[in-house]
Amino acid sequence: MARAVTPRRKALNTLIAWAIGLMIFFPILWTILTSFKSEAQAINDPPLFLFFDWTIENYGVVQDRSDYMRYLWNSVIIAGGSTLLGVVVAVPAAWSMAFVPSKRTKDILLWMLSTKMLPAVGVLYPIYLLFIELGLLDTRTGLVIVLMLINLPIIVWMLYTYFKEIPVDILEAARMDGATLRGEILHVLMPMAVPGIASTILLSLILAWNEAFWTLNLTAAKAGPLTAFIASYSSPEGLFFAKLSAASTMAIAPILILGWFSQKQLVRGLTFGAVK
Amino acid sequence: MATRHSRSAARIMMAPAVILLLGWMLVPLTMTLWFSFRKFLPLRGGDLGWAGFENYVRFVSSSSFWPSVQATLMIVGGVLVVTVILGVLLALLLDQPMWGQGMVRVLVIAPFFVMPTVSALVWKNMFMDPVNGVLAHLWKFFGATPVEWLSQASLQSIILIVSWQWLPFATLILLTAVQSLDREQLEAAEMDGAPSLKRFWFIILPHLSRAITVVILIQTIFLLSIFAEIFVTTQGSFGTKTLTYLIFQRVLESQNVGLGSAGGIYAIILANIVALFLMRIVGRSLDA
Amino acid sequence: MGRIVLDQVSKSFGDVEVIPPLELLIEDGEFAVFVGPSGCGKSTLLRLIAGLEDVTGGKIEIDGQEMTSVPPAKRGLAMVFQSYALYPHMSVRKNIAFPLRMAGLDKEEQQRRVAHAASVLNLSDYLERRPGQLSGGQRQRVAIGRAIVREPAAFLFDEPLSNLDAALRVGMRLEISELHERLGTTMIYVTHDQVEAMTMADKIVVLNAGNIEQVGSPLELYREPRNLFVAGFIGSPRMNLIEGKEAARHDAHAIGIRPEHIAVSGSEGNWSGVVGVSEHLGSDTFFHVHDTGVAETITVRADGEVGFRHGDRVYLAPRQDAIHRFDAKGLRI
Question: Is B29 part of a structural domain of the chain?
């Protein structure tokens, strides 16, 4: 909705908005910049902004000392695996709710969401115990399962809202054309819902990547993802700013980029469609 | 509009999701409930029998309980106030015509994608460090004595960190709501001679009320269980021990599972009260 | 091949009975049209035959086989939807080939049949386009193409022309009729437009509130409407329905006379009235005559050249042998 404004007003808006935007972004920018400094320059007084000796040695050191790649790999497996599994379970459920609604559909959806609101700490010990019992403690499999369960309500919900926009006529046409249920979902529904499925996957990846309660409490050295990798810098390595920055940059970069791409679609998933 | 075939197919296809979530909810919940009535110390004798409501009473009467409730409320309340007010202002600003709107939005949203452990560490060390932190330099630049943020102003520091993470969320949702505002209504008010402050108060704010409610409720649910931000900064010291953190300490650090479980039940009840309100709002949007 | 029998078929949604038990026979090769006002249950009836809805009671037999609880995919029927329901992510070629792919036909056979259907429907130049790049009429043809490649026992059309503009509608009407002539396959066609029903059908099924009011050929329905509802629904403009004293003179509760069965002149006739609106179609002119004393308005068809004007007094002479008589229940006497 373009409204006519004077160029002066627009310039002023631009100036204020960019100033605030940069301020909010500054901690991230500062982290990225610091990751390219030497340790000495990182704590230089006054702080150096752009004019320092750029170096990438911190990244090498972090990789050598903390085995970044292993944590990264764990993060990829855990976030990717839980998302994939979640989508596989959620697509049929969302199909049911969107296209064969019953009186209970709404209740089931709300109940699913309500499981998301169970405070994790309330069930920490039981899960911990079950994990020991089942040999899942400090395994990627265990985390894949837990994070899948945590994100499942959101995945179902998002897919449901996207599926509901697809006219039921087209699925019925597929049925008339001799498609089985599997064919209907695989060849007609899913290709048509590709944008929705993609943003659902993105959101789930982001949430799983950043999850920091279960990943910290259910892993140790073996299966720890990047959240745990970073937590290990809490002290005393945290005092080495450049290395901390390099490690932080490496931990957030993949998801930051993913998130920027999908920001528009995220609103819907995050509000459960309650704000249009 | 469906046949018996599709209805039975629907039930089968819904079953995995429902069963998984039902299990995920009921099994640990039942166990927590069970433990909360037991004297259960895994490292000091294990399950020592029935305890009745002793754990519930002890949890509430412990000297850390009320401070933890207070810290929780302060953090949740503080973050809500900061994010909602700034979020509304930022949403209104971002809705204005400007150059590079998309880019600014990307900048503003970025913190949301930073994992909590990273943001807590970066803030703790690189910004709030009393010697080398950016804020310390800033204070010195203006001739003030640097603050020892995480010990002298611990709650405010946590609120700052968490607000920084959640401001993008509030802004994003409020911006969506602002953009759905009927321009003609605003223009009509302008024609009627309403000054901009009045327009904000009588038209924009009521329009945003639903979005604000959603922001408050969703954030509350997540904020009640913030963990990593405290885990990597203060570890619960300096008055930042929230209910969540207290329970975590009871269970994992002092290994008093019975006591922690009773605390967990309290937390679940608290979250459910909030959830109930959220569900009613979301449920209404389902009917629309 | 495509003989369809409905035996005591009924449908309820919850407590609401939308179709009370009904009997219907559609012969092989017949073009049957379900017609009725919106909400009369005609689409629901079609969906029951298609298998997209379950019947609440009764049996459906297609081609001699009991199909009541067979899923739609296995009934051997093809359907053309009001919205066309094309797969937007597939090219025209893939859309048409989809039923064949689902049936597991080999690639060559698929190509052969798609090419044939495309040439029949003048779609050969559009095979690589997406549905979004086609006009309404072309989409309609793709939907029909998708139906004919299956070589179904019967075609089901659910108001297929209602999204097209008037000119295109007439053209497509002809095309579908020609297709029926050529294929000789049973077709069931749902519409609310009685002109479509009259021009296309071998057999018209008039539905009202879920009930079958009358089944018959277009001319049977035109000549001998079984009741007031059919009398009023079939024919354009509508039959004039007259109650009261004038009807009593014919020993009926109500009488009906079609506009084309009333002669109009400036001098003589049983009724007289004042011309209100007149609609000049060129070939014909329709006068709406007021103040006749028998009914509020009487519509009359006259030759296109007849030139009465608004306010003229005219005399009307109904053809006595073309008067339809109905009793108090609305049934034909």
Answer: no
Query: What backbone phi and psi angles, to 5 degrees, belong to C160?
Result: -70, -20
Partners of residue C278 on adjacent β-strands: C287
| Helices within chain B (DSSP H only) | 4-36, 54-61, 65-95, 101-109, 116-121, 134-141, 149-152, 154-179, 183-191, 196-199, 205-224, 228-231, 243-248, 257-287
**What is the set of domains in chain C, with CATH numbers?**
4-226 (3.40.50.300), 237-326 (2.40.50.140)
* pLDDT at A2 (0 to 100): 47
- Domain residue extents for chain A: 7-57, 67-232
C-proximal residues of A, 108-127, CB under 8 Å:
none
Reported as a single tens digit per residue, the pLDDT across B131-189 is: 778 888 888 888 777 777 777 788 888 999 999 999 998 998 888 888 877 777 777 87
Q: What are phi and psi of C91, to 5 degrees?
A: -70, 170
Which one of A172, A187, A191 has the shortest CB-CB distance to C52?
Answer: A172
The reported pLDDT for the residue numbered B172 is 86
Q: What CATH topology corresponds to A67-232?
A: MetI-like fold (1.10.3720)
Q: Which of C12, C52, C68, C70 to mutate: most B Cβ within 10 Å?
A: C52
What is the rounded CA–CA span in Å between residue B227 and residue B248? 9
C22, pLDDT greater than 80: yes
What tens digit of pLDDT does each residue of B91-133 get?
A: 988 888 888 888 888 888 889 889 888 898 888 888 888 777 8
By Cβ distance, the residue of C51, C53, C69 closest to B1 is C53
Give domain status of residue B117, yes or no: yes
Mutate: best of A145, A271, A276, partner B, most B CBs <10 A: A271
For residue B241, the enclosing domain spans 35-287
Are the Cβ atoms of B214 and A102 closer than 8 angstroms? no
Residues of chain A with pLDDT under 50: 1-2
Q: Does C50 touch chain A (CB under 8 A)?
A: yes
Is some CB atom of chain A closer than 8 A to the CB atom of C77? yes
Residues 6+ apart with CB under 8 A from A15: none
At residue A21, the pLDDT reads 92
Q: Rounded distance, CA B224 to CA B272, Å? A: 11
pTM of the model: 0.85
- Total structural domains in chain B? 1
Least CB-CB distance to C73: which of A169, A178, A192?
A178
Task: Tell me if chain A has a CB within 8 Å of the CB of B109.
Answer: yes
Please state the ipTM of this predicted complex. Answer: 0.84
CATH number of the domain that B186 lies in?
1.10.3720.10
